[in-house]
Amino acid sequence: MKKLLFVLAGLSVVLLTACNTIEGMGKDIQKAGESIEGAAAKKK
After folding, report:
1. Nearest 5°: phi and psi at 41?
2. Which DSSP state fits 44?
3. Calpha distance 2→4 (Å, rounded)
4. 3-class state of residue 1 by DSSP
5. Which residues contact 37 (CB under 8 A, 6 or more apart)?
6. Residues 1-44: tens digit of each pLDDT
7. Which residues constitute the signal peptide according to the record (predicted)?
8. What is the C-alpha separation between 28 and 44, in angstroms, rounded?
């Protein structure tokens, strides 16, 4: 039973970390897109 709880706790930590990483990556991609839009608007 202790092994099962340990595995579930470890899995939870991994999943929560992955969610934070994906969220951060999405924000970075959004900022990059905004920079590209700004550069394109300046060229017009």
Report:
1. -70, -35
2. -
3. 5
4. coil
5. none
6. 778 787 878 777 776 677 777 788 888 889 888 888 888 788 76
7. 1-18
8. 25
